[in-house]
Every structure is written in C-alpha cells, then in structure tokens.
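Researcher: Structure prediction, please.
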Amino acid sequence: MSRVALVTGAGSGIGRAAAIRLSQAGLRVVLASRGAEALTATAAACPGPALAVPADVTDPSAVDRLFDRAEHDWGAVEVLIASAGAGFSARIERTGDADWNRMLELNLTAPFRCLRRAVPAMRAREYGRIVVIASTASRIGEPYLSAYTASKHGVLGLVRAAAAELAGTGVTVNAVCPGFVDTPMTEATIGNIVQKTGRTTGQARSALEARQPIGRLITPGEVADAVWFCVASEAITGQAINVDGGTVQS
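Model: Predicted structure follows.
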C-alpha cells in the first residue's frame, strides 16, 4: 500500500504543485484547502488516488477533523506538506492587531497544529516526512512585511526545533523557502503594487522578477521538486531549502 500524504493549501499554487508531484511519485494524497471547487481541480490533476477534504486550517477543530478523515479513509498520515499560507503588506505603524494575528494564525499556528497532530503516528511508525512551505522572508527581513516576516521566521524556528526533537525517530522536518513564485499569491502582490504605486501590471511583475538574480519568477513545479527532495531523503532534516533564483545565498 502506498504511503499517505496530506497537503494543506492544495487548492492552488505551490500546494497544488506539491500534491501533483507526490501523486506522480505514487503517494496517495489528501488535499486540504478552504475551496472545494479548487480541490476538485487539484484532485483531477493528480494521476493517483486523491481525497479532497475542504478545511480551514486556522480552525483548531478543523485540523483534527482533517486528520480524522484521512485516518478513517486511508490510515495514518506519513507525509505532511504544510503549504497553506498568505501574505500581508503594510508599514509597521499601519499593521493592525487583526492583520498581525491573521498572519501568525495561518502561517505559524496552523502548521504547528498540523505537526502536533501528525507526529504521534509518525513516531509510532518510525517514519515521517514533514515539509513546511516557508519563504525567503524566513531568512531575511523584508520592508513592509513585518507580520508576514515574523510569522515566517517563526515557522522556520518551529521546523528546526521539531527536527532536533525528532532526530533519530525516523521523522524528518524541513522547510522550503521560495522567493517570488508564479502563483495567485504573487498575482495579489502585483495587484497591491499597482494599486499603491500606479505602476502597470507588467511593470510591477518585472520589478518582482528583477528581485531574483535569475530574472524571472520561480515556477510552482520548481518548489514542488524541492519538496520532493525533502520527502525522498532520510538524511535531510532541520534544513531550510531556498528556491529563490539566488536571492538569498546561505
């Protein structure tokens, strides 16, 4: 029987690409995101078995229900890809408590809850792969992104602490840190730049592309390849794998 993988944020972008990559490798994939229609599209793109479970991972009870459904239908989750996330841009003095809390809840607390729920079964099986989609903002400070950057720095700390705790158990924990990826989230960033600066969409997109030394946006498939690299290895743990076209040299 093939291993069971659970991918949050699987409705689009990096999460969708990661789910398809895992399915291509022969894993059964449980797909989670808030949008049922988007999950149906992801499931249709997976060549192997895919179970779509709409869930809002910022709801603590939804995380438990998500894992309960996976376990009931297919058994324990052996591979967890925590990809659900969002961004927010504003000057520090214009970042409200609600904005701050929303970034922490989705980008840090939700992955923590998923890890906490997944780890006991992984320990028991002496096998597990956990990959969190972080960001180059996990590695460096970014202006106008205080809440987002803090949440992504925090999730990298979570990955490192969990990897240290689980070393030797057969469970690995890693982060993949993309730069600007050609996803709906980046399209939203481009729209925000257009609105605030008066640039055209093309100019805003070119500005983001120029931030990366390779001169283009990263593709979701390139991030998914890095995710699979972490899943396929038992010797890689506690690492932050940059997929950013050379933006952050570590």
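Model: The chain has a mean pLDDT of 95.
Researcher: Thanks, that helps.
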